[in-house]
Amino acid sequence: MDRSEADAVGQLSVPEAAPARGLLPLLFAGNAAMYALYIGVGSVLLPLQIEHIDAALKVANLGLVGGIAAIFATVFNPVAGALSDRSGRRNPWILGGGLAAVAAMAVLGSVNTVLLVAIGWCLGQAVMNIYQAALTSVVPDRIPLARRGVASAAVGLGMPVGSTIGVLIASVFSHHYRTGYLVLGALVAAAAVLFTSRAREQRMPAREPTPLRAQVATFLNVLREHDFRWAFIGRALLVLGYFAVTGYQLYILQDHISLPSGLEPSKAVAVLTPISAVAMAVSTVAGGVLSDRLDRRKLFVAVSAALAAVAQLIPLLTSTWPGMLAFAAVNGLAFGCFMAVDTALVTMVLPKAADAARDMGVLNIANAGPQIVGPFVASAVVSFGGYPPLFVVGGLLSVLGAVAVLPIRAVR
Fold first, then answer.
1. What is the pLDDT of residues 226-269, one digit of tens each?
2. Domain boundaries, the chain
3. What angle do CA 308, 299, 220 make, to 5 degrees?
4. What is the fold, at CATH topology level, of the domain defined by 3-404?
5. Which of 268, 289, 294, 276 is nearest to 333 (CA)?
6. Which terminus of the chain, N or C, has less C-beta within 10 A?
7. CA–CA separation, 300 vs 4, rounded Å?
8. Beta bridge partners of 346
9. Which phi and psi (to 5°) does residue 364 adopt?
10. Pair 45, 181: CB distance under 8 Å
11. Is the whole-model pTM more than 0.90?
């Protein structure tokens, strides 16, 4: 697919006067709430809950729970995207997933065995990926191609801001994690109500139901598209490297880093997250805007992925608190720019605008899939070699992620 064809595909489903400006703050709020829950739970509340249940096996148990729950994320994201395509609507799925998050977090906070925690977090991943699949599809549905970089920046800003909010909430409730779960679930529900009440949508033509076997075949066929496949691989590798390390950040601070006297690991996470968030916000905005102006995506994606590899070297070379502060800043710069520009790049290599939600759901497997593999890989690496080899693995994966975007043809 050449550049002109890609532009045509990207514009098919977007009205000429798409209400991009009014939509951007709502996209930001919706994504910020989503990341607040994902990061607040995954970085603080879930590790604390698992450690409370069985401190001796916390590393292995966190890997097991995270990996199993991510399988549900992988399954539900493209399925939910296909369902919203079929219904011709996004808002009902955003609202339903957001409201269901409250119930899922209530279940997760009330259990006290590793098995039940795994089931509860699977439920949470399922409903959150229904919400995420529909919300992610709003950009290719309603944003003109020329404003995709700015829109992606608005979406990308949700991660640093949401991460900070989520970790701060989780840190406040670190000794009362049941309440922390409920607060994060309520935040997503409020964002879903706000988005669906303010962002009116035009109903798209509904589709006839497709047999499950045909849906699976279609999900696999879309990966045969050259550019889409390489965008998928690049994101999967970098996300794998990122989450293999950050998913164990609390335990790294507990067991590997020399913290200042009196600084608890959960409070240290609350210090590192805003530093990373500010760096991420700066690079998200700069990357999104500059990539639009220069009409270059691959360069920004490759450089930010390479910078992520450099970030992983810092805690490998110095297991100190200043080293972790530097790691948070550099990693934030790298990941913010990558996610903002890569999201714009991905919307430009979608095979068909009519299947935007389904295809973005397939692409989101590159987010969820590494979170299946990541906990198992990280758990095995830490169990056999400690934390230093984990940083080496994360850096190598980031380098491979930078290399993977180079073969993409339709986008510069």
1. 788 888 888 888 888 887 888 788 899 999 898 998 888 988 99
2. 3-404
3. 80
4. Growth Hormone; Chain: A; (1.20.1250)
5. 276
6. C
7. 21
8. none
9. -70, -15
10. yes
11. no
